[in-house]
């Protein structure tokens, strides 16, 4: 499958409607470019207030599944084309495309995919790597650039194809042309500990008293919520169909309607003898791409947007690499301290569900209820395309806010990251007249 000469205006949603239909009822047909300030004029405060207007994604498919033959650039290109078509503005107006990527082969997939999507050569592109925090980091970076007055229109998000990611190998000193293959890179030095993700999840579960029963219940909830959201059509308008040799893929393949408590209870420990983390309460590696539009409040209001996610602040954090699963909690706690927001002020939470154990431990540490998190399911059900998962948090928050949030409602996106890292971002749902 290839996407070598895309037409941004011709993209379609999973439901077959035009890409611009996602904005129907929310955004005026006028050009966003009309809201730009003339060159050389000092930006006003509203010019430097970042907001998220809309977003698109591919379906998420398990590794070596429905999207198993599609490379990361061919996942990303149609999403870039669709989200740009949604804005109704010339591609030349885009200041930059910023994409998170974790397991690609290097290079600059943002630049490659934007050119494949038909954007002009004058639009740059940058690819960043904070492992599974990359997609959220890309969006935060775009927001910071708007705050700095460096630009006013960014396409930001993330992508990974775990199916087609290159094999990794070192050169052998004794035979330079012979590859020494390895599974993953190092995230921390040996004297601090660099455990595999599943082993670290078991360590977190033991350290913070997260029982097998709680983990299984949370995993089951994720699947049930994702199945319900999919059945209700909650994902349809945001998904861009991806062409494959077997036909178009436009439905998430991970959520399992038939999953139950008894089946989850039969899974054995997956990573540590006697441990509580299993394949059932861990996410599946996945393929997918997510992109959102980041702009300024001035631009959004000029465009006629009826609502948007306003960026409040974001904080990264570091923790003991052996307890990497609580990195998101450390970031969230630091974010609350810096903004003066309390956990009780937050109406909606999206936290990457790499492992149920680390989500539950992090929510407990932040004083947040698990019942209020991930209301349409998360990575335990949908899968985890590393570089895209952080961007998926923002898209889920945006879509839920658009359909049910009150003006001023706060939302948190957070995740824990390999190597003992965390990243959290705070958002506020706003309407121009709210």
Automatic annotation (TrEMBL):
A GO biological process held by the record: phenylacetate catabolic process
Cellular component aspect of the GO annotation: cytoplasm
Keyword set includes Iron-sulfur: no
Region (Disordered): 1-49
Compositionally biased residues, Basic and acidic residues: 36-49
UniProt xrefs under InterPro entries: Thiolase, Thiolase-like, Thiolase-like_sf_Thiolase, Thiolase_C, Thiolase_CS, Thiolase_N
PANTHER family associated with the record: 3-KETOACYL-COA THIOLASE, PEROXISOMAL, ACETYL-COA C-ACETYLTRANSFERASE YHFS-RELATED
Record has Acyltransferase as a keyword: yes
Sorted UniProt keywords: Acyltransferase, Transferase
Residue stretches making up the Thiolase N-terminal domain: 51-297
Ranges annotated as biased composition (Low complexity): 9-35
GO molecular function: acetyl-CoA C-acyltransferase activity
Domain Thiolase C-terminal span(s) in chain numbering: 313-426
Protein name: Acetyl-CoA acetyltransferase
Family: Belongs to the thiolase-like superfamily. Thiolase family.
